[in-house]
């Protein structure tokens, strides 16, 4: 049982970061004041990768699955299934305001909206890889900007990590364009 209990701490932490990204998205949308709106926009973009980041934690499931007893296997699968669902849900809800902004900005230019979404999803992928590989958290932009720049350069200088960014960007785009059509995620 120790693994499934240990998972709760880091899973709740990562889920909380995902919901912070969602919260800033809606604070941005609900704010009219320029400077405050800009602040919420920046915080939203910094925390948005934490939503889909939850999917990367699925990498731990196979190894943990082999280590737990039969009774804990069900709990373990439930934990990771919950993480998967929350990752997709928070990402789709967190990115929803961006679609609203893009539709407002580009009016009826659907190509520009689609291309902007694709580019933004690859940018989110960069943030996910930066967090996963370099362990850079969103708030480090404020507490250690030099470290964030150095980590970003390291990630972008590594061909394998650039391929990882591209690969995860493709996955994020598939998730986005697939789930976007569901009623709960409809963009108005």
Give start-end ranges of low-pLDDT stretches.
none
Q: Percent range for helical residues?
A: over 70%
| Oligomerization status of the protein chains | single chain
Percentage of β-strand residues: under 5%
Distance between the termini: 45 Å
Query: Count the strands?
Result: 0
Sheet with the most strands, sense and barrel status: none
Mean pLDDT: 93
Which structural class should the secondary elements be placed in? mainly alpha
Rg over alpha carbons: 17 Å
Shape, please? globular
Following the backbone from N to C, one meets helices and strands in this order, namely HHHHHHHHH
Number of helices: 9
List the helices and strands and how they pair.
Blueprint (H helix, E strand, L loop, with lengths): L1 H29 L3 H14 L1 H5 L7 H7 L2 H37 L3 H25 L5 H4 L1 H13 L1 H21 L9
Helix pairs in contact: 1-2, 1-5, 5-6, 6-9
3D architecture notes:
The protein is mainly alpha-helical and 188 residues long. 82% of the residues lie in helices and 0% in strands. It has nine helices and no strands. α1 runs antiparallel to α2 and α6 packs across α9. The longest helix is centred in the middle third of the chain and has 37 residues. The radius of gyration is 17 Å and the shape is globular. The termini are far apart. The mean pLDDT is 93.
Compact overview of the structure:
The chain is an all-alpha fold and 188 residues long. 82% of the residues lie in helices and 0% in strands.
Keywords for this structure?
188 residues, mainly alpha, single chain, 0% strand
């Amino acid at each position: 049982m120790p693994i499934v209990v240990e998972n709760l701490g880091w899973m709740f932490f990562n889920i909380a970061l995902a919901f912070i990204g969602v919260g800033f998205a809606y604070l941005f949308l609900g704010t009219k004041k320029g400077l405050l709106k800009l602040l919420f926009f920046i915080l939203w973009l910094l925390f948005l990768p934490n939503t889909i980041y939850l999917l990367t934690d699925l990498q731990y499931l196979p190894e943990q699955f082999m280590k737990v007893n039969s009774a804990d296997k069900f709990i373990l699968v439930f934990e990771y299934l919950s993480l998967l669902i929350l990752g997709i849900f928070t990402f789709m809800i967190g990115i929803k305001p961006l679609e609203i902004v893009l539709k407002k900005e580009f009016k009826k230019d659907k190509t520009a909206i689609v291309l902007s979404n694709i580019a933004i999803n690859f940018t989110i992928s960069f943030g996910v890889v930066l967090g996963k590989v370099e362990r850079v958290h969103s708030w480090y932009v404020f507490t250690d900007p030099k470290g964030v720049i150095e980590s970003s350069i390291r990630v972008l200088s590594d061909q394998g990590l650039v391929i990882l960014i591209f690969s995860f960007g493709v996955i994020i785009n598939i998730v986005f364009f697939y789930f976007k059509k569901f009623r709960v995620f409809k963009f108005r």
